Automatic annotation (TrEMBL):
Keywords: Transferase
Protein species of origin: Gekko japonicus
Top-level taxon of origin: Eukaryota
Family: Belongs to the phytoene/squalene synthase family.
Protein's UniProt name: Squalene synthase
């Protein structure tokens, strides 16, 4: 079994800000848990084509979308951009169709800062993902990647990864990085440095304890939350406390990362990856893969319920963080992944299907969440609704039942202010919700086209 090679580090931005639907329900093409791995680690723990950030749901596009591809909606005039910045947005659209639109809905100069932040981390992630790079080369690259931001000519031409273009044309990205205000540069460079060190640390390291689970998730998701929060504050769209309270920002990332790790147990097993902490699963089985065996299904569900209970402890921090946000575009950017995550946890809790196939929220349910999560009162109602759903499913015989009930009770009693949201460009909440819906439809259309193209190429090769 492969170690926790920060392949899910490849999730970084991807996993952190979007929860994509899992790929298929077994190992390989239609295989079950006993099938051989569909892909080797060479394609990455969290491959670019199957990221685990809360991506828009796979709702079927209306008929008119079948005739003409939709690009993610652009809420600003690209004609006013420099050639290099326009190229960066092109790479953004190419590497993350769904996330691109969410970034482009952000207000003011924050939009460009987050775009460059994403591309820098995507480039770092591409290095980490590329299993054709030997460790002697990869480790120093990861540890020193932040320094390449200040080297105008640095690029890497030997990657075999799908998104290698961000490395081959890194001079364009680093140029726009250096064009950002110094306050943004400092944040991006520091987070890049810390994340690179964390990736290098976990290349050949397993997650044994719950403390190490938190540490791993901090590197691949918490740091993203911290970096984004500091960018929000630096832009003046949010108060300084948003960037200063790193504990809350870290919890935002950990809540998403842990949700994906729990939900994707079977997929990770099929691809020879382990992210569940040994401290927890070893109480139920001898090997993590044993949880997928039919005779262990009751123990498997109890193990999962314990991890879900652990993850629910981040909900109070999530609610407090969101309640502090002032800007509408930033609120939507942050809130939608969080409500999708709690809905996913509710679907997984005490559900044997996690160990048999795919568990995901319904398409209509996902779209409704995206449309509704535009203010604090609505987000609190959504969180409480799914916490109550979990509460109703707690088995009295579950070893973690008392702890699960306790955290849900603490969330119920939490007093969180509603806050007042504003938008610098006067986009209404319903407008931004419609944008998110359009993103979802566009993303599904492009995914369908991409899949059809891959099948066509595969057929041609045969």
């Amino acid at each position: 079994m492969a170690s926790c090679s920060s392949k899910a580090a490849s999730s970084l931005f991807k996993r952190t800000l979007a929860l994509s639907p899992p790929r298929g329900g077994g190992c390989g093409r239609g295989g079950g848990p006993g099938s051989s791995s569909a892909t080797s680690l060479g394609s990455g723990r969290l491959r670019s084509g199957g990221s685990r950030l809360l991506q828009p749901p796979s709702a079927l596009p209306p008929r008119f979308l079948a005739t003409q591809p939709l690009s993610p909606p652009v809420l600003f005039l690209q004609d006013s951009l420099s050639d290099s910045l326009r190229t960066c947005y092109k790479y953004l659209n190419q590497t993350s169709r769904s996330f691109a639109a969410v970034i482009q809905a952000l207000d003011g100069e924050l939009r460009n800062a987050v775009c460059i932040f994403y591309l820098v981390l995507r480039a770092l992630d591409t290095v980490e993902d590329d299993m054709t790079i030997n460790l002697e080369t990869k480790v120093p690259m990861l540890e020193n990647f932040h320094s390449y931001l200040y080297q105008p000519d640095w690029k890497f031409m030997e990657s075999k990864e799908k998104h290698r273009r961000v490395l081959e044309d890194f001079p364009t990205i680093s140029l726009e990085f250096r064009n950002l205000a110094k306050v943004y540069q400092d944040v991006i460079a520091e987070i890049c440095h810390k994340m690179g060190l964390g990736m290098a640390e976990f290349l050949e390291k397993k997650v044994d304890s719950k403390r190490e689970w938190d540490r791993y998730c901090h590197y691949v998701a918490g740091l993203v939350g911290i970096g984004l929060s500091r960018l929000f504050s630096a832009s003046k769209l949010e108060d300084p406390v948003i960037g200063q309270d790193t504990e809350l920002a870290n919890s935002m990332g950990l809540f998403l990362q842990k949700t994906n790790i729990i939900r994707d147990y079977l997929e990770d097993q099929c691809e020879d990856r382990e992210f569940w902490p040994t401290e927890v699963w070893s109480k139920y089985v001898k090997k993590l893969s044993d949880l997928a065996k039919p005779e262990n299904i009751d123990k498997a569900v109890q193990c999962m319920n314990e991890l879900i209970t652990n993850t629910l402890h981040h909900v109070p921090d999530v609610l407090v963080y969101l309640s502090r946000l002032k800007n509408q575009s930033v609120f939507n950017f942050c809130a939608i992944p969080q409500v999708m995550a709690i809905a996913t946890l509710a679907a997984c809790y005490n559900n044997k299907q996690v160990f048999r196939g795919v568990v995901k929220i319904r398409k209509g349910q996902a779209v409704t969440l995206m449309m509704d999560a535009t203010n604090m009162e609505a987000v609190k109602a959504i969180m409480y609704q799914y916490m109550e759903e979990i509460y109703q499913k707690i088995p009295s015989t579950d070893p973690s039942s008392s702890r699960t009930q306790q955290i849900i009770a603490s969330v119920r009693s939490l007093s969180v202010p509603s806050g007042t949201l504003i938008s610098r460009v006067h986009y209404s909440p319903i407008y931004l919700s419609c944008v998110m819906l359009l993103v979802a439809l566009s993303w599904q259309y492009m995914s369908t086209v991409s899949k059809a193209t891959e099948e066509y190429v595969h057929t041609g090769e045969n």
